[in-house]
Structure formats: structure tokens, C-alpha cells
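Quick one:
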Amino acid sequence: MSLPDGEHDIGRLPDCWLTIDDDLASRQHARFHIAGPTAVLVDLGSRNGTFVNGQRIVGRRTVHDGDKVRVGREILVVVRSDQSMDDDDDEGGLRRTLAPGEDTRFPSLIGQLVEKSLRVGKVKEAERYASALTNQLSASPVDVEHPAAKACVSCLLGLAEHTASGVWLDRLFQLHVKQNWLMPVDVVDRVRGALDRIPRVPGHALADYEQQLRRLQRAGHDTAGDVLAMVAEIVDAAGQR
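Output:
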């Protein structure tokens, strides 16, 4: 994830750039100073310290690509990117997180940022984060159970529920069509709940997804029929027949 120039705090306070729910983290634990390609990490007098690559820092410390920053129990990996997160063609960062066997913290972090932005009323910021993750994920085939997939689906559902805008549900179904995912029942239930407040779903991704489920059912996919019945109800409710 790209950080703009400026100061970005990490800690337990809700107005921190990254809020950490961890009793080992201080309220304002550490701060990133970003100036172009240079990132400097400062411990803010935290009780349990801030660590870079296992070493507790004193004062300021310039961090580099691949450095591991520990705040409380959380570990952040510094990844240098020469492209903006808003660039639709920016696949490199996400592909690094999708390496086989790698702990994918990047998508989970984006999910936290979306939730935090919505919580403090920064809807445009949440939309920017979610759009970036969706664009990247669309270009990187993954399984529906992958942490990146779950984080992205949660972001889109959260935005739909918070804004009552059907645009985010349309993007959710676009992603499922493109990735050929079978939507979990709990996700379908959240979609149905969101539709109680959403007047319409634009686009045709919802209907496209219903047709994709029918193809999966004809191909003998065991659980596609159950999901199809629920999605068909949603298509009827959204008036897309």
C-alpha cells in the first residue's frame, strides 16, 4: 500500500492512521514520516517499544524495502512501490502478497483501513482503498477462500451497507463473475440484508452471476444449486429480469 508524504501514526487510538486492537500497543505507539522515497519510523515513547527486524529502535530509524516493523503483536512489512495505489495496472504489490505460502497481511490491512475510514466518516477514503484492492485482485486470479479475496469481499459489502449504494454490490458481483467464485452463503445473506436499504443495483453483473451459477450447476457443481436459488431471489428483488 502506498503512503502519501506526511505523518502516519500507529496505535490504539481510533484517529491513528492504523488503529491496532492490541493491549501491548500504546495509544500513540509509533509514527511513519514519509518524504518521497524515504520512510522514517519514530517510536513515540511507547511502553513496549517499536522493533525493526527484531531490534528495538531508539529515536528515529529509516526503514527500507523488506524491513519488518513490530508494534505490539502486529508485524508490518515495508514494501517499496514506485506506482500509486490508484493505478489500475498496479499488480506488483498484490502479486507479492499472493506468493505461495506467504502470510498475506496487505489485503487484511486494506480491510482495516476501509473499516476505520467508514467508522470516522471518511467515505471517499474508504472507497479509494476498496477500489484499489478490487482493481488489483481482478488482475490476479485467486481462490475465493484466499485472504485477499475475503478482505476484498468484506470491503465491498461494508461500503454497500454503509453508503446504501448498489454500485458496490455491482462491483462485488463483477468480481465473482471474473474470478468464477462461488459466493459463500454468509456473503449472500449480507447482500440480501444490504438490499433492504439499497433501492437499485446498477449494471448487469448480478444477472451475469446468476447465469454463471446456472452454468456451474449444469456442469455438476454440488453446491452451486443452493447458492443459485438465493441469488435468483436477489435478482428478482433487484428487478433485473
